[in-house]
Amino acid sequence: MTPAPLSPFSRQSFKRITTGAATAAALALLLMSCASDTGSSTADSAGAASFGDASIQLSWIKNAEFMGEFVADDAGYFTAVGFDSVDLIPGPASAEAGVISGNVDMGVGNAISTGTAIAQEGAPLKIIGATYQKNPFTILSLKGVGNIATLDDLAGKTIGVQASNQSLWDAFLKINNIDPSTITVVPVEYDPTPLFNGEVDGWFAYLTNESIDAELAGLDPVNLPLADNGLPFVAETLTVSDDAIKNDREKLKALLVAEIKGWTDAINDPTAAATLTVNTYGKDLGLKMEKETRQAEIQSTDLIVSADTKANGLFTISDALQKQSIATLKAAGIDIDAGSLFDMTLLDEVYQENPDLIAYSK
């Protein structure tokens, strides 16, 4: 089927799982009533771990955002580490709710959404790794419309901001000491046509979505990434339950090994990963090869890899980046400490046991 034109903001936004009393109440009920699936591994006759089936909740449709998972599945990396199968469940969906309910073993989310669930609802969750070292939020403008390349360029401009992203926008202004009265904010939905038509000067957007649309339309996009301007935090995070960390460590570590191998292949050949996405995993979605390839390239060069991942391996979150993420959450009104949000011990063990996985560049 062809998906409705939903935006990544609708499922990656700051207020995704905490907006509305009904959502908070539902999450609270899950916390009180849902038992965790311990899913202990067994051993086969050869002594190798056998984990049976597993599942990963994706936060969005099956596009290039999850190309590493697709490669891991297609190349047999999940089965090689002991899984009979791994179900990659498309979104949009809340990683936090899926993990808490026990419906999935792991969910793909971000530090904002998971931090909100832990701080405001007491969710028994941790982030154990991050695909994106750099979050992809950006203030998108066009060279001929707005041309917002620096913070100073925001003065006097009109910016389209979605309701779900208002809190993150407010945090962006606050942390950069920008007077809100110097900017006109227009409530918008997710279709960036008003920017493309010149009705507004800028748009709260994604580097891997609307910015690519503008580029492919020949509109000369100009980006002001939030991660480079006061709001760094990790995204595409791998969220699991506290219970699984305690009781299913080997199962989670096996998932991480397969994920690392899949993403290693994907970032070394983003064109092949995009092709696999379009022709196989997202074949019913009407995806465009040109856009998926550009997303794959941007992810591989700008978002997933860093000096820290080169030194320590994919998915690792350095102490410095953890502190930056916590500072961003604090600016957005979320009070949480690094120890309550992150647990890097599983990745530490994975790389200690598999040091060859650190060198992902080929």
TrEMBL record:
The keyword Iron applies. GO terms for biological process: thiamine biosynthetic process. Keywords: Iron, Metal-binding, Pyridoxal phosphate, Thiamine biosynthesis, Transferase. Pathway: Cofactor biosynthesis; thiamine diphosphate biosynthesis. It catalyses: N(6)-(pyridoxal phosphate)-L-lysyl-[4-amino-5-hydroxymethyl-2-methylpyrimidine phosphate synthase] + L-histidyl-[4-amino-5-hydroxymethyl-2-methylpyrimidine phosphate synthase] + 2 Fe(3+) + 4 H2O = L-lysyl-[4-amino-5-hydroxymethyl-2-methylpyrimidine phosphate synthase] + (2S)-2-amino-5-hydroxy-4-oxopentanoyl-[4-amino-5-hydroxymethyl-2-methylpyrimidine phosphate synthase] + 4-amino-2-methyl-5-(phosphooxymethyl)pyrimidine + 3-oxopropanoate + 2 Fe(2+) + 2 H(+). Residues 63-273 form the SsuA/THI5-like domain. It holds the Pfam family NMT1. One of its GO terms (molecular function) is transferase activity. InterPro entries: NMT1/THI5, SsuA/THI5. Transmembrane segments: none annotated. Belongs to the NMT1/THI5 family. Homodimer. Responsible for the formation of the pyrimidine heterocycle in the thiamine biosynthesis pathway. Catalyzes the formation of hydroxymethylpyrimidine phosphate (HMP-P) from histidine and pyridoxal phosphate (PLP). The protein uses PLP and the active site histidine to form HMP-P, generating an inactive enzyme. The enzyme can only undergo a single turnover, which suggests it is a suicide enzyme. This is Thiamine pyrimidine synthase. It comes from Cryobacterium psychrophilum.
